[in-house]
Specification:
9 strands; alpha+beta; 3 helices; four-stranded antiparallel beta sheet; about 180 residues; about 50% strand
Amino acid sequence: MNLKNIAIAFFVLATFTYTGCNKIKEALDVTFNTSFSTNINFDVPAASRDINEGGTFNQTATIDMTTVTQFNDYKDKLKSATVKSITFTVTSISEEPVTLTDVEISIYYGDLAMPVYTITSMEITNGSSFTLPEAQFDVVNQIILNAVGITVGVSGNSSVAPVQFTYKTEIDAEIVANPL
């Protein structure tokens, strides 16, 4: 009888200890919002003109996520990443307005890639912006959890050549990490 009570007490103590440790570990989760960004500079030369008088462009840039201090502090302890928005903003343009057509946007790193997002036609001026739809974010969440880098690619056609413009790409995300 005494042995049975000791076994029950041990089982109850072990259950509370295990459950308690998990709750303590969860209580130490750190949640923070951050932005990862890069500028992509485009130079559509006159030499890229086709029979439609416009030009073509194709550019990539890699976001170094370790430049964000808080992310860098926890990059080896990430639990989840939730992208809130991915926004592209024209921060400079040599001539405006410009119509971009058949624009393809890709966000990837290694074998992880979101589906290519296509915009048939859009007019850009300095300060104009657009945000990708949330359906594209799942793969980007996974890329962030890899904590290596994010490559952004943009290609398409321009109604004007020559023209230079810069897109600031900004990925806003909520990160959950645990220092244990």
